[in-house]
Amino acid sequence: MFYYLFQYLDKAFDFPGAGVFQYISFRAAMALIFSLLISLAFGKRIIEFIRKKQIGETIRELGLQGQSEKKGTPTMGGLIIIAAIIIPTLLFAKIHNVYIILMLITTVWLGAIGFLDDYIKVFKKNKEGLKGKFKVLGQIGIGLLVGSVLYFHPDVVIKERLTHNEKTAWANSVPAEQQQQNLKIPKYAAQPVKALTTTVPFSKNNELDYGKFISWFCDDCLKYGWLIFIPIVILIVTAVSNGANITDGIDGLAAGTSAIIGTVLGILAYVSGNTVFADYLNIMYIPNTGELVVFAAAFIGACIGFLWYNAFPAQVFMGDTGSLAIGGIIAVYAIAIRKELLIPILCGVFFIETLSVVLQVYYFKFQKRKHGIEFAREHRLFKMAPLHHHYQKLGFHESKIVMRFFIVGIALAVLTFVTLKLR
């Protein structure tokens, strides 16, 4: 909103300082600051309101150190995160940008699913919450919407890099008198194109078109690439959303890890939407994605601001209201800037946590079938899943576990950047 207001003031009245709102870097910085202020200023009030309504977490007896002290801690704190994302984005981003609209819809959609799950757990006293099939249906719904918009919307385009022959042809087409003016040869095509291209890490020719998966079927099948793309989007959104939900098991882990991931995604959005950096890094140039930096800044500020109250010992838990939303945000953001194949590296903490649960379940079933139920109970793969609970069972304090997971998350973030040049 402020962007449009100050744009009008700048053009109509030459208002001093109004032009600074044209810069993405300034608006991103303001979104980050406002997000932190909203989290800190209103977070305490929201926690007090939740506590008065006795919206406390029901803790299952899992035999973990310090678990009993968490009983009754307010939950649904994800409302703080959602508010701290949406309000600064509405204030400082270009609202008509298709990517911003998509991110806002994702935030509200998955936040609503998580809120419904928390509501059933807290108010209906049903520990199971929203049935898993309804959660998955909601995740499939947003995945279907996101995939369809990214494929069919006319503003979702890329600019292809010019080949050496195309650059030569352009230079030869320029009149001799203009060549004397040291004109710069363009590096990207003048007209953007619709494409299902994405970035492939550790690959010399680091771009992949999803349409090629079915192009062999018939000569005209490339245009049906959405049959591959949309299911992949649904899978990624569901997987990352659930991964964040699983990671949210000890104080500060999900929020801090998400802030690290959000920082990387924000930088990737900036360089992908800038022709100079995109050319230097030899990555895809995606017009209009630079605006996503403003959203990323609000997301980072919301996660860090929430950590103020969620760090050990937690004054509030984000609940599914927050965890499903932040996981979905990360997934859709990565898909929008065509870096979704980097998710297993960037979101490695989420991936390992989810994998530990899957391995625990299947290993238990295997041992049960082969040796019986008693043997399976005594010889589990992990002492407890997800992985952070395994370390708690080993006697590590949760603050140490969280800090070490943060270190792993930072290392994975650096590795994600390295993949852009390591081919």
Throw out a few tags for this protein.
18 helices; 423 residues; mainly alpha; two-stranded antiparallel ribbon
* Strand percentage: under 5%
Order of helices and strands: HHHHHHHEEHHHHHHHHHHH
Question: Judging from the principal axes of the Cα atoms, what is the shape?
Answer: globular
Number of helices: 18
Using only CA atoms, what is the Rg?
24 Å
Strand order of the largest sheet: 1-2
Largest sheet: 2 strands, antiparallel
What is the terminal-to-terminal distance?
Answer: 42 Å
Estimated structural class: mainly alpha
Mean pLDDT reading: 87
Strands, count: 2
Please outline the helices and strands.
Layout: H1 2-13, H2 24-52, H3 78-92, H4 98-122, H5 132-152, H6 164-173, H7 176-179, E1 197-199, E2 207-209, H8 212-215, H9 226-247, H10 253-272, H11 275-281, H12 292-310, H13 319-336, H14 343-346, H15 348-371, H16 373-378, H17 387-393, H18 398-418
Antiparallel strand pairs: 1-2
Helix pairs in contact: 2-3, 2-12, 3-4, 3-12, 3-13, 4-5, 4-13, 5-9, 9-13, 9-15, 10-12, 10-13, 10-18
Describe the fold and architecture.
Helices cover 63% and strands 1% of the residues. It is mainly alpha-helical and 423 residues long. The chain has a domain at 33-158 and 224-343. A two-stranded antiparallel sheet has the order 1-2. A hairpin with a 7-residue loop joins β1 (197-199) and β2. The longest helix is centred in the N-terminal third of the chain and has 29 residues, at 24-52. The mean pLDDT is 87.
